[in-house]
UniProtKB/TrEMBL annotation:
<dbReference type="InterPro" id="IPR020040">
    <property type="entry name" value="Ribosomal_uL6_a/b-dom"/>
</dbReference>
<dbReference type="GO" id="GO:0003735">
    <property type="term" value="F:structural constituent of ribosome"/>
</dbReference>
<dbReference type="Pfam" id="PF00347">
    <property type="entry name" value="Ribosomal_L6"/>
</dbReference>
<dbReference type="GO" id="GO:0002181">
    <property type="term" value="P:cytoplasmic translation"/>
</dbReference>
<feature type="domain" description="Large ribosomal subunit protein uL6 alpha-beta">
    <location>
        <begin position="11"/>
        <end position="82"/>
    </location>
</feature>
<comment type="similarity">
    <text>Belongs to the universal ribosomal protein uL6 family.</text>
</comment>
<comment type="function">
    <text>This protein binds to the 23S rRNA, and is important in its secondary structure. It is located near the subunit interface in the base of the L7/L12 stalk, and near the tRNA binding site of the peptidyltransferase center.</text>
</comment>
<dbReference type="InterPro" id="IPR000702">
    <property type="entry name" value="Ribosomal_uL6-like"/>
</dbReference>
<dbReference type="GO" id="GO:0022625">
    <property type="term" value="C:cytosolic large ribosomal subunit"/>
</dbReference>
<protein>
    <recommendedName>
        <fullName>Large ribosomal subunit protein uL6</fullName>
    </recommendedName>
</protein>
<keyword id="KW-0687">Ribonucleoprotein</keyword>
<comment type="subunit">
    <text>Part of the 50S ribosomal subunit.</text>
</comment>
<dbReference type="InterPro" id="IPR036789">
    <property type="entry name" value="Ribosomal_uL6-like_a/b-dom_sf"/>
</dbReference>
<dbReference type="GO" id="GO:0019843">
    <property type="term" value="F:rRNA binding"/>
</dbReference>
<keyword id="KW-0694">RNA-binding</keyword>
<feature type="domain" description="Large ribosomal subunit protein uL6 alpha-beta">
    <location>
        <begin position="90"/>
        <end position="164"/>
    </location>
</feature>
<keyword id="KW-0699">rRNA-binding</keyword>
Length: 177
């Protein structure tokens, strides 16, 4: 069983954290995030570190212990540094462009796809074949990157489609004569 929960979360300089009952609020240079933890875990702030401990000796408390610690760590990192997901487009004519608050995608369909950029995230297309999704909330960044990838997932024969920059596509061999 993992023991992620027993490690404290260091609070970096420039981040203020307040804990009230089960609610943690973190404010940093990139914004503010709030998390309400389950009743099975207790969150305390001691000496510039956040400690998460199970309140009960039950299986559910131990499960939520590590999860809560990971979520709180992501909140602290998000308000201080932020998160970025990079996507690459592989295919002839596949391109992306940001126009105002809309991401325009040309992915080989008969029409372009207009994806509205959420207000809490920043989407940039540094080159026509790459997209960078960045924001404070790790879950939101991953969700939006996943939604963009879902428009044309990579296929296994030529690797065409939208993929994560660090994703490795398992290639299949084509037909033989």
């Amino acid at each position: 069983m993992s023991r992620v929960g027993k490690y404290p979360i260091p609070v970096p300089a420039g981040v203020t954290v307040t804990v009230n009952d089960n609610t943690l609020v973190a404010k940093g240079k990139l914004g503010q995030l709030e998390y309400v933890s389950a009743d099975e875990v207790r969150t305390t702030l001691e000496d510039g570190q956040i400690w998460v401990r199970p309140a009960l000796e039950s299986k559910e408390a131990r499960q939520k212990w590590g999860t809560t610690r990971s979520r709180l760590h992501n909140i602290v990192v998000g308000v201080s540094e932020g998160f970025t997901k990079k996507l690459e487009m592989v295919g002839v004519g596949y391109k992306a462009a940001v126009q105002g608050n809309v991401l325009k995608l040309s992915l080989g369909y008969s029409h372009d796809i207009d994806y509205p950029i959420p207000a809490d995230l920043k989407i940039v297309a540094p080159t026509p074949t790459t997209i960078e999704v960045s924001g404070v909330d790790k879950q939101r960044v991953g969700q939006v990157a996943s939604e963009i990838r879902r428009f044309r997932p990579p296929e296994p024969y030529k690797g065409k489609g939208v993929k994560y920059a660090d994703e490795w596509i398992l290639r299949k061999e084509g037909k033989k004569k």
